[in-house]
Amino acid sequence: MKSSDIQKAIKMYQAGVSQKDIGKILGVSGQLISRYLRESGIETCIGGYNEPRSKVESKHQEVIARYRRGETRSAIARAMNMSASGVAYIINKLNP
User: Fold this and answer.
1) How many angstroms separate the CA atoms of 37 and 26, rounded?
2) In which band, very low, low, confident or very high, does the pLDDT at 43 lie, cut at 50, 70 and 90?
3) Structural domain boundaries, residue 21
4) Distance from the Cα of residue 83 to its chain's centroid
5) At what angle do helices 30-39 and 3-14 cross, to 10 degrees?
6) Is 45 in a helix, a strand, or coil?
7) Among 23, 38, 39, 89, which has the minimal tally of Cβ within 10 Å of its Cβ?
8) Do both 59 and 86 map to the same domain?
9) Is 35 within a domain?
């Protein structure tokens, strides 16, 4: 991608256009847009969450910490306003 396209992508993203839609406009994938945004120092959202990556990672760490303290998956889900299956996915994926 040209530098001018990257700058366009940054402006569109900051204006609220999704990475997927930016990719369609510029003729590349949303994943490529995500990579260029991150390389430009722009905090991006994780697909499916619509929240900044740092917030999602922090939420994941809180789920793991609560689980390790002995809270049940359903209790964590209720406390964090998440689905029980979402909590289970995070625990299964991130808990060693």
Assistant:
1) 14
2) confident
3) 3-39
4) 17
5) 90
6) strand
7) 39
8) yes
9) yes
